[in-house]
Amino acid sequence: MRDETETTSDTSGTPGLSGASGARGETPAPGDRLIRAGALVFFAGAVATLVTVAPLFLGTTPFPTFMFGLSMLMGVGFLLTGAGVLRSVAAGRRQARAGR
C-alpha cells in the first residue's frame, strides 16, 4: 500500500535553509543584513574594478584616481560579509547553548 505521509521539498522549517529571510514576514537572523549589505558593496567594488582596469587593456585614457579608491569597496564588502557571517555563527552558538 501507499504511505500516507506527505513528502514535500519545503525546507522552511529547517534552520539555515529557509531561503530568503523576510519573504514571508520572518525576521532576518542576526548577521543577515550585514551579509546582504556586504555582498552589495562587494559587487559595486567589483564593477568599479572592472571599469578601472578596462582602459588599461583597451589602450584608452585611464580613469581618475578616485576610481581606484572605489575599487577598494571590494575589500570593504568582503569585511562586511565576514562580520555578518561571524555574527550569525555567534548567534547560532548562543542559541545552541541555550537549548542544552
Query: What is the total tally of β strands?
Result: 0
Please trace the helix and strand order, writing H or E for each element. Answer: HHH
Count helical runs: 3
* N- to C-terminal distance: 40 Å
What's the main sheet like?
none
Mean pLDDT: 80
Shape: elongated
Low-confidence stretches: none
Write down the Rg: 21 Å
Please estimate the helix content: 55-70%
Strand content: under 5%
List the helices and strands and how they pair.
Layout: H1 32-58, H2 65-71, H3 73-99
Helix pairs in contact: 1-2, 1-3
Structural description of this entry:
It is a single chain. This protein has helices at 32-58, 65-71, 73-99. With 100 residues, it is mainly alpha-helical.
Q: Nutshell version of this structure?
A:
This protein has 100 residues and is mainly alpha-helical. It has helices spanning 32-58, 65-71, 73-99.
Keywords:
mainly alpha; elongated; 61% helix; 0% strand; 100 residues
